[in-house]
Amino acid sequence: MVFTAMLIALIFASTPTPLLSSSAAAAKPNCADRCGEIAIPYPFGTTPECYQHYSFFVTCNHTFTPPKLFMQNSSVEITDINVDGQLKVLQLITKDCYARNGTSILKSSPLIELPHYFTVNNTANKFMVVGCDAIGVVNGKRLSRDYALGCTAQCEASDDLRLREGSCNGIGCCQTTVAEDVWRLNILLTTYSNYSDVWDINNCGYGFVVEEKAFKFSIENLNALKEVERLPMVVDWAIGNGTCEEGEKNSATFACKSPISACYKPETGYGYRCRCLDGYQGNPYLQDGCQGL
Ligand SMILES: *[C@@H]1O[C@H](CO)[C@@H](O)[C@H](O)[C@H]1NC(C)=O
Ligand SMILES: *[C@@H]1O[C@H](CO)[C@@H](O)[C@H](O)[C@H]1NC(C)=O
Ligand SMILES: *[C@@H]1O[C@H](CO)[C@@H](O)[C@H](O)[C@H]1NC(C)=O
Ligand SMILES: *[C@@H]1O[C@H](CO)[C@@H](O)[C@H](O)[C@H]1NC(C)=O
Ligand SMILES: *[C@@H]1O[C@H](CO)[C@@H](O)[C@H](O)[C@H]1NC(C)=O
Ligand SMILES: *[C@@H]1O[C@H](CO)[C@@H](O)[C@H](O)[C@H]1NC(C)=O
Questions:
Q1: What is the pLDDT of residues 231-275, one digit of tens each?
Q2: Is the pLDDT of residue 86 over 90?
């Protein structure tokens, strides 16, 4: 297994990659820096010597072609990691489907739970509900508080012409902003009449938090989402506990390791982040990570 990982690391090391992406992707020495095409920059890593904290533990599963990357040992799939503090993940969507006689034929409501240091990005994502008889509520935790919000998507056959591409305004689709600092969420769907009034046009409701620019509502979604398992979501990450000032007090644990980096506090979420100083780029979390442009 270790041998395979080394072999793969060697293959990738010998593949010429653009300077920008290879420096931005820097992992610790002797650590896998890629899972297929996905860069794994430190503090992320696939083994304890390679990640900074268990929260940044990722698993590269080679039984998939190309291999897939997962958060820790969870089913949350990661498709992109950047050192600026964002991750892109693919998240299971909630579904609620009915037979013509009104009995439930499919109900799924996956729990999304992010590790410490990770929160749902509240500007890039929207909570959306799609369906003609769908009432959606998202329940969850923001920091240590409970929160809930919801919206309702309705439509009738006569609304068909109004179900316009890209508009999510309550007719067949509704959306709301996600609160700040959310790390756990569970989307629940219910109906007014088990789709009995709208069954001929739509018999399922769907709920998800999705990267806004990755999902445009169209009338086809009412049925096509049945075949969709996961949709992309943007997750923020930070490091350390508390503020920059608190972190700087202990140089052994302070995460901004590059001498040409600076610490800053993100607008939302836990902890702090590091960035290379102007004129430098790379990975501020590594001693030699920031390099001149
Ligand atoms: C990789 O994925 C397969 C298929 O889902 C699963 O059976 C296997 O346990 C996974 N392996 C690891 C190391 O997570
Ligand atoms: C992941 O590993 C932790 C610790 O080993 C364990 O408690 C947890 O149940 C595991 N989760 C899954 C989904 O396997
Ligand atoms: C409703 O329809 C489903 C699927 O067609 C069928 O399995 C079920 O037996 C029906 N239930 C009743 C109460 O008619
Ligand atoms: C609607 O669905 C719910 C939950 O699946 C079920 O308990 C209820 O009996 C259904 N109502 C009708 C009118 O079929
Ligand atoms: C930060 O706090 C969390 C929660 O209390 C803890 O799990 C984690 O280990 C802490 N991290 C560090 C670097 O101290
Ligand atoms: C949320 O994502 C946007 C776009 O990717 C980014 O500009 C913003 O800084 C992120 N928010 C936080 C708190 O990281």
A1: 999 999 999 888 999 999 999 999 999 999 999 999 888 899 999
A2: yes
Sign of the alpha-carbon dihedral angle for 257, 260, 263, 264: negative
In which band, very low, low, confident or very high, does the pLDDT at 156 lie, cut at 50, 70 and 90? Answer: confident
Ligand 6 contacts CB of residue 85 (under 6 A): yes
Q: Which atom of ligand 5 is nearest to the CA of 54?
A: 9
Spacing, Cα 228 to ligand 3 middle (Å): 25
Give 84 Cα–ligand 6 centroid separation in angstroms: 9
Q: Which of 96, 97, 103 most suits a substitution to test ligand 4, by most atoms within 8 Å of the C-beta?
A: 103
Does the Cβ of 116 fall within 6 Å of ligand 5? yes
What is the share, in percent, of the chain residues with pLDDT greater than 90? Answer: 78
Query: What is the distance between the terminal CA atoms of the chain, rounded to a whole angstrom?
Result: 37
CA distance 171 to 75: 32
Is residue 2 over pLDDT 90? no
Average pLDDT, the chain: 88
236 lines ligand 6 (CB under 6 A): yes
Ligand 1 and 4: CB distance under 6 A: no
> Considering the entire predicted model, what is its pTM?
0.87
